[in-house]
Specification:
Oligomer: single chain
Order of helices and strands: HH
Strand content: under 5%
Structural class: mainly alpha
Mean pLDDT: 88
Number of strands: 0
Low-confidence stretches: none
Shape: rod-shaped
Largest sheet: none
Helix content: over 70%
């Protein structure tokens, strides 16, 4: 015997059936919009940010390695020049080269700004 509390599950008819069908339709539409929005965000925002992050990390690593390599080359050059010119002469020569290079860069920048 079926208890009076239990009603057989089946499609509802009348006003309750319409309300349930509309609720299901709204839930399906909401799920679809959420899924499409997630796909758009992943495609248009997340992937470009991931590519940018990878590019920045790669560039930072390359920059750090270049600076480290240039520091070793500078120390080796200084020691070589120190043996040839003495420490004061090596410092004077390296400082003069740096000043000359800075003047060249300033002149190039000034000319590019005038154009």
């Amino acid at each position: 015997m079926a208890s009076p509390d239990r009603t057989p599950q089946g499609p509802k008819t009348g006003f309750e059936g319409v309300i349930e069908a509309v609720a299901d339709l709204l839930q399906t539409a909401s799920d679809w919009v959420r899924q499409e929005a997630e796909a758009v965000v992943r495609e248009k925002i997340v992937r470009p940010i991931q590519k940018l992050g990878l590019t920045l990390v790669s560039a930072s690593a390359a920059g750090c390695l270049i600076v480290l390599g240039l520091a070793f080359i500078a120390v080796a050059l200084f020691l070589y020049l120190a043996g040839w010119l003495g420490y004061p002469g090596a410092l004077l020569l390296i400082g003069g080269v740096y000043l000359l290079l800075s003047v060249v860069f300033i002149v190039i920048k000034a000319r590019s700004m005038l154009k």
